[in-house]
Write a structure and sequence with these properties.
The protein is of the alpha+beta class. The protein is 18% helix and 29% strand. It has a domain of 126 residues: Sandwich (Jelly Rolls). The chain is built from two helices and twelve strands. The radius of gyration is 50 Å and the shape is elongated. The relative contact order is 0.20.
């Protein structure tokens, strides 16, 4: 009888112990619900590699060696055609003269030969205007006349405009009120000279 009671007490104690263990397990499980145990490795944000700015510079080039140039012609000849750069109503009169009234003009382009010095020898009659440019953009008047008369040939220094491969010479009318514009006489030689520059 005593042994039976003892066994019952031991069994009851075991049941209570098992019940408590089950409750502890449930509490632990409940505490862990919603808790993420996954380990996330931290990664640095991706950044583009730094690059140095690329700059390109035009290579410095020196002009070629200067060479002597001489252009010589008379108006309305094949030789003149080689040097006519632009013209607007440049006309021929019955005597074979080339003339330019009001806003009419002719532009000659001469190679400089990469020289720094050059001259133009030309005979201009009537009310002429002689302009020169280094780039066919900005022209500067270097000579003009308001008189209606014949003139002798004059040599003009164009060195100021000898800065590139070509020099541009424009001949027009100094007066827009009448018809006696700049005239290059027939048979009168137009001569551009650029001797080789000696350093």
């Amino acid at each position: 009888m005593k042994k039976t009671i003892a066994l019952l007490l031991i069994a009851a104690a075991l049941l209570v112990s098992c019940s408590n263990a089950s409750d502890d397990a449930q509490e632990t499980t409940a505490d862990m619900v919603g808790f993420d145990t996954t380990t996330v490795e931290e990664t640095e944000p991706e950044t583009e590699p730094e690059t140095e700015p690329v700059t390109t510079e035009a290579p410095e080039t020196e002009p070629p060696e200067p060479f002597a140039v001489e252009a010589k012609f008379t108006v309305f000849t094949d030789a003149e055609e080689e040097y006519i750069w632009d013209e607007y109503e440049s006309s021929k009169d019955p005597s074979g003269n080339r003339f330019h009234d009001i806003d009419h003009y002719i532009i000659y382009r001469f190679p400089t030969g990469w020289n720094k010095n050059g001259t133009l020898n030309i005979r201009l009659n009537n009310q002429f205007e002689l302009s020169v440019s280094a780039d066919d953009d900005e022209y500067e008047v270097i000579a003009s006349s308001d008189a209606i008369k014949a003139n002798k040939a004059v040599t003009y220094d164009l060195s100021k405009f000898m800065t590139g491969e070509y020099v541009y010479v424009r001949i027009g009318d100094s007066s827009t009120e009448d018809g006696y514009g700049g005239l290059i006489p027939a048979g009168a030689a137009v001569i551009f000279t650029a001797p080789a520059t000696v350093e």
